[in-house]
Amino acid sequence: MRDLKQLVKAYDVRGVVPDQWDESLSRAFGAAFVQVTGATAIVVGHDMRPSSPALTRAFAEGAAAYGADVVQIGLCSTDQLYYASGKLDLPGAMFTASHNPAQYNGIKLCRAGAAPVGQDTGLAEIRELVESWTGEDDTVTVPAKDVKAGTLSEQETLRGYADHLLGLVDLTAIRPLKVAVDAGNGMGGHTVPTVFDGLPIELVPMYFELDGTFPNHEANPLDPKNLVDLQAKVREVGADLGLAFDGDADRCFVVDERGEPVSPSAITALVAAREIARAQAAGEAEPTIIHNLITSWTVPEVVRELGATPVRTRVGHSFIKQEMAVTDAVFGGEHSAHYYFRDFWRADTGMLAALHVLAALGGQEGTLSALTAEYDRYAASGEINSTVADQAASTAAVRAAYAGLEGTSVDELDGLTVAGPDWWFNLRASNTEPLLRLNVEAKDPAKMAELRDGVLAVVRG
């Protein structure tokens, strides 16, 4: 039996085409998805990668062969696929490898209403089924199923997606804004023109041409080097702010009028404040906000100050979405610029977060840097990766060095978190690589640097 564990990750399918997977395997994933979910109809979409159309078509054919009607929405962002899954109440498949290089592709799967499919919610079963259909020579043979084949149809969803988002944020009264947007040749170049159409915004587009070979820079704004062009453009044209989307445009990063990046934690706090106010105005006495354990302490502080309840979770969209469902949270944010909204089927959409930023900035006369200053209360290291031979031994050494210090607390919700009166750090092992990921935050920049350097010294021996 073929082992697909390197291809099927914790939350999605992701690998090199055609070395790790191809159309025959994609066809099998389509059939297995229908078999495991019991779906009678699904919706599929894809990004701009050269391999995406053929892989998507094969998946659709596999799903149809197992009796599901397939609604094909074509080119779309991942959150546009989530919109279609929510609006049509259908399970969905999005073909994308997000910010990975051009030779990669993948599938993000969801159940009806954009509910996530991960290892514990069906993805492992799908993998095992596809493995069972794979021969010793890696040839994939999907067994025929005695059902009436499903139909393949096409549907346009971009305008509906844009209208849905614009219905959740009032931008009618904002002042005119100049906004530079770096789409990184990804799906932001597809969605932004429609979403921004008719708004009082002077759009300065960068790399809007859909090109899955990413000729200008990687479509990964989490890496500072990929923000350099946007920062320069904001300063050059005197923009009020800059927005950068990743390859499948489900994450959005923000740059202020000085060309300085605004941390995703500050954006989480800003959007949380707006969503709390909206929920309270609708009669919700104490709304809940989700944040993962690597977001700044600023986030729970702001949430409590506004009379709402913060809930801390592990890193990862499946944990965020699960906790949102349990608590009926109005909003959730992660340090990686994933933003989740109850009114968007608890799914993540960077575009809706961007619209909140535009509404907040355009609703007053000050600059974005001034607006976000109150949400920037701590000095943060950002995520620092270290390659280690033994993750557990390195983590144990850090625990021994820091956990016993006076006034500290320790938890292991996700990796090792050690907190003092005005500082904390988290050390987490990567699930897929021999890495430890360190995040440090402190009230004082000097303390942050001292902690960062001290923990790294222990980790790296």
Describe this structure in words.
- It holds the Pfam family PGM_PMM_I.
- Its cofactor is Mg(2+).
- Residues 6-132, 160-259, 269-378 form the Alpha-D-phosphohexomutase alpha/beta/alpha domain.
- Residues 383-456 form the Alpha-D-phosphohexomutase C-terminal domain.
- With 461 residues, the protein is an alpha/beta fold.
- The protein has 4 domains: 13-156, Alpha-D-Glucose-1,6-Bisphosphate, subunit A, domain 3 (Alpha-D-Glucose-1,6-Bisphosphate, Chain A, domain 3, 3-Layer(aba) Sandwich); 160-260, Alpha-D-Glucose-1,6-Bisphosphate, Chain A, domain 3 (3-Layer(aba) Sandwich), CATH 3.40.120; 264-375, Alpha-D-Glucose-1,6-Bisphosphate, Chain A, domain 3; 379-459, TATA-Binding Protein (2-Layer Sandwich), CATH 3.30.310.50.
- It has helices at residues 23-37, 52-65, 78-88, 123-132, 158-166, 188-196, 228-237, 264-281, 298-305, 317-327, 350-362, 368-372, 391-402, 445-459; strands spanning 13-16, 41-46, 69-75, 92-95, 104-111, 115-116, 152-154, 177-182, 201-206, 241-245, 252-255, 261-262, 288-292, 309-313, 331-333, 339-341, 347-348, 379-380, 384-387, 409-411, 416-419, 423-429, 435-442.
- Strands 1, 2, 3, 4, 5, 6 and 7 form a 7-stranded mixed beta sheet that branches. Strands 18, 19, 20, 21, 22 and 23 form a 6-stranded antiparallel beta sheet that branches.
- The relative contact order is 0.10.
- The model has no long low-confidence stretch (mean pLDDT 96).
Topology, number of strands: 23
Architecture of the largest domain in CATH? Answer: 3-Layer(aba) Sandwich
Q: What proportion strand?
A: 15-25%
Relative helix content: 25-40%
